[in-house]
């Protein structure tokens, strides 16, 4: 019986050695890193989105800032004890209107920014996929998301992804806005 147990133990030991040998033949993972913050700020679509937001909301933002500055000047006049009660009431109404207008403006801007961020994320993921596939990387990590304390420069795909984002953006630039936000389907 002891011989049987010894034989079984030896068999199991040899089996685990064989499995370990097979595990060592698994190819090493090629891991790349991308600085998504750089891509999100330096790419052509990011610059275009910033310009689009400024063109769409710049005048309204400037008008709200102008109203705010005018109210700040009125505050000094209200500090005078001789200021009329009606002037104070008018100031309070103007301040409330400005606050409401500012909140509505910020909601509109936020809705557009969310849409632009979603489109940008889709575009960056598509570009990252293309670059990683073309260069043989099977895992890509965002450096700005944290967790990566060091990465060899040869693993950095940031400039390649940035170039791919710009390439995809340029290819989609002439499409209708709803089509341009959709990157081309990844090639297999």
User: Which CATH class is shown?
Assistant: Alpha Beta
Placed side by side, the strands forming the largest sheet appear as 1-2
Name the CATH superfamily classification. Answer: Skp domain
What percent of residues adopt helix (DSSP H or I)? over 70%
Task: Count up the helices.
Answer: 6
Structural domain tally: 1
Largest sheet: 2 strands, parallel
Secondary structure elements and pairings:
Layout: H1 2-24, E1 31-34, H2 36-42, H3 44-78, H4 85-135, E2 139-142, H5 158-172, H6 177-180
Parallel strand pairs: 1-2
Q: What can you tell me about this protein's structure?
A:
The model is unreliable at 4-13 and 17-21 (pLDDT under 50). The protein has a two-stranded parallel ribbon. The chain has helices spanning 2-24, 36-42, 44-78, 85-135, 158-172, 177-180, and strands spanning 31-34, 139-142. It is built from six helices and two strands, in the order αβαααβαα. Helices cover 72% and strands 4% of the residues. By secondary structure, it is mainly α. The chain has one domain: Protein Binding, DinI Protein, Chain A, CATH 3.30.910.20. α2 (36-42) crosses α3.
């Amino acid at each position: 019986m002891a011989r049987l147990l010894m034989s079984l133990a030896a068999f199991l030991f040899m089996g685990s050695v064989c499995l370990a040998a097979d595990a060592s033949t698994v190819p090493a993972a090629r891991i790349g890193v991308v600085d998504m913050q750089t891509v999100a700020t330096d790419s052509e679509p990011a610059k275009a989105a910033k310009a689009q937001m400024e063109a769409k909301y710049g005048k309204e933002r400037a008008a709200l800032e102008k109203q705010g500055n005018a109210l700040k000047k009125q505050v000094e006049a209200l500090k005078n004890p001789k200021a009329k009660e009606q002037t104070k009431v008018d100031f309070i109404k103007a301040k409330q209107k400005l606050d409401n207008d500012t909140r509505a403006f910020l909601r509109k801007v936020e809705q557009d920014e969310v849409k632009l961020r979603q489109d940008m994320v889709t575009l960056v993921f598509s570009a990252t996929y293309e670059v990683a596939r073309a260069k043989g990387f099977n895992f890509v990590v965002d450096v700005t998301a944290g967790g990566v304390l060091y990465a060899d420069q040869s693993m950095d795909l940031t400039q390649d992804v940035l170039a791919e984002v710009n390439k995809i953006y340029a290819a989609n630039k002439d499409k209708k806005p709803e089509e341009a936000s959709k990157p081309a389907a990844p090639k297999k």
